[in-house]
Every structure is written in structure tokens, then in C-alpha cells.
Amino acid sequence: MRYQKQAFGEGEKVALDGATFTACSFYKTCFEYSGGALPEFIDCRMEDCNLKLTEAAGRTAAFLRRVSERNSGGANAVLGILGIDPAATPVSKAPTQS
């Protein structure tokens, strides 16, 4: 799906999988991504939005969370996967779930 010059407002849910957004604005929008084709954002503006990961994307997020919680070097591995330099980012220990 392709969107051009559209404004997405507060509380609106927007499916991201395979979508292309050009010159769109998002204000307090809920992005939903299930792990399909990556979305593309071209010259878009986002303000105070959130992201809900479902299906395969949700399972991947749960896996990365588990690796970073249970393994002393795991947080740095997750940062590396995300392309973030662990040396430049202080990592605090995440609370473990019971």
C-alpha cells in the first residue's frame, strides 16, 4: 500500500508491513508491524507515536528481550544487532520477569 501526503491522527492504527509513506505526518499514531516486508518512510514526520509488534515481529522482540535479560553479554549483542555501538550506549540491567 502506498500513502502520499496523508495525515494520520491520534489513536489511528497504521499497518506498516510492505507500506510506503511519502510526505506523511503521524501524530500519536499506533504503528503495527507483524514482521512482513519492511515499510519505507520518505520525508515523513512523526510525533509521539508508538509501535506494536505482532506475530513474527513480536516473537523476535521477545527473543531479543530474553537474550538481553538472561545473558551478561546479551544486551551488547542485541545493541550490535540493532547497529548501536555498545561502547557509546550505557546499558542498565533490565528487570527479570518471574
Description:
This protein is of the alpha/beta class and 98 residues long. It has two helices and nine strands. It folds into two domains: 2-53, no CATH class; 55-87, no CATH class. A three-stranded parallel sheet has the order 1-4-7, with no helix packed on it. A three-stranded parallel sheet has the order 2-5-8, with no helix packed on it. The protein has a three-stranded parallel sheet with strand order 3-6-9. The radius of gyration is 16 Å and the shape is elongated.
Global mean pLDDT: 89
Number of domains: 2
Oligomerization state: single chain
Class by alpha and beta content:
alpha/beta
Q: Which runs of at least 5 residues are low in confidence (pLDDT < 50)?
A: none
**Percent range for helical residues?**
10-25%
Shape: elongated
Q: What strand line-up does the widest sheet have? A: 1-4-7
Counted beta strands: 9
Number of helical segments?
Answer: 2
Spatial separation of the terminal alpha carbons: 41 Å
Q: What proportion of the residues form beta strands (DSSP E)?
A: 25-35%
